[in-house]
Amino acid sequence: MLVTLGIYYLAPWIRWDRGPYAPDQAILIDLSSRRFFFFFIEIWPQEFYYVAGLLVMAGLGLFLVTSAVGRAWCGYACPQTVWVDLFLVVERALEGDRNARMKLDARPMSFAKLRKRVVKHSIWLLISVVTGVAWIFYFADAPCLLVSLFTGHAPATAYTTVAILAATTYVLGGLMREQVCTYMCPWPRIQGAMLDENSLVVTYNAWRGEQRSRYPKSARAKGIPVGDCVDCNACVAVCPMGIDIRNGQQMECITCALCIDACDGRMDKLGKLRGLIAYATLSEYSSNMSLATDEGR
After folding, report:
1. Residue whose C-alpha is closest to residue 85's, from 184, 162, 174, 186
2. Is 165 in contact with 132 (CB distance < 8 Å)?
3. pLDDT tens across 158-216, in order?
4. CB 187 within 8 A of CB 70
5. What phi and psi values does residue 30 have, to the nearest 5 degrees?
6. What Rg value do the Cα atoms of the chain yield, rounded?
7. Which spans of this chain does the record mark as coiled coil (predicted)?
8. Quick one: average pLDDT of 135-145?
9. Residues 137 and 145: beta-carbon distance below 8 Å
10. Cα–Cα–Cα angle for 64, 169, 146, nearest 5°?
11. Residue-by-residue DSSP string for the chain
12. Among candidate residues 292, 283, 89, the one with its CA nearest the CA of residue 173
């Protein structure tokens, strides 16, 4: 998240010396002169087929990555995921984890609850505005445009663009969140056709975790066989999509691996081996399940 956000917000401020009578902004889409600058590359309209070729290569690369390591794009680089993660950082800092937020939602309105909500949404709106401002910096000299924005001398299109992007960032990243990935984005449905038994996906190793028990010691004392999963729901609490990975592969899973980190942390506290939830291929999972079944697990 920090890497992608850093690139987005800071890239317009990178300078690149192109000599006299040429802009010194490293990445610039100069619509008035119909030129695109990317460091040492300068592309004119008649050369736009280069950009089309790069987009085709990027699309093929995305297909290749998906077939090899699942929805890595969705989990680590998709703008929707990145900004949702940023908004969640703010939300967790102000309102606590998922359980604390659910309890807060259930409480009647009070001054403390109202204060948290106002502060949270104010920070979200600030992030959204900064996101919109950063976008228009790619279309003009960033330092000059920043001064124009604050002095009120920027073009009306600049303010309109910032307002539109701020609104969409706030709504999609703060309010809709997983609904965008589940209902608006076609990629979850497309990627299902690109995965096979050898594609890496986030997998709950049921052969090791079942049967679940919150009190494994007492269950074993009674002769009840239990697995390593203590049914703490930590994997559910951290999931930005709100799914339970223990229910198997689901279209909503974006392969962000937050459930893996949460489960590994709980396994460390319990003194058990990590990997109850892990990246694995379906063929590996089937093999392990067969071995566990043969051994009487």
Report:
1. 174
2. yes
3. 999 999 999 999 999 999 988 898 888 888 888 777 777 888 888 899 888 888 888 88
4. no
5. -90, 90
6. 24
7. none
8. 93
9. yes
10. 105
11. -HHHHHHHHHGGG-B----TTS--BSEEEETTTTEEEETTEEE-GGGTHHHHHHHHHHHHHHHHHHHHHSSHIIIII-HHHHHHHHHHHHHHHHH-SHHHHHHHHHSPP-HHHHHHHHHHHHHHHHHHHHHHHHHHGGGS-HHHHHHHHHHT-S-HHHHHHHHHHHHHHIIIIIIITHHIIIII-SHHHHHTTT--TTSEEEEE-HHHHPSP-S-HHHHHHTT----S-----HHHHH-TT---GGG---TT-----HHHHHHHHHHHHHT--S-SEEEEEHHHHHHHHHHHHHTT-
12. 89
Cis peptide before 211 (omega within 30 of 0): yes
Cα separation, 175 vs 128, whole angstroms: 12
What ranges do the domains of the chain cover? 2-189, 196-294
Split at pLDDT 50, 70, 90, the class of 33 is confident
Q: With b meaning 16 or more CB within 10 Å and e meaning fewer, what string describes 54-65?
A: eeeeeeeebeee
Please state whether beta strands 41-43 and 277-281 pair in parallel, antiparallel, or not at all (unpaired): unpaired
Question: Closest by alpha carbon to 264, among 272, 256, 255?
Answer: 272
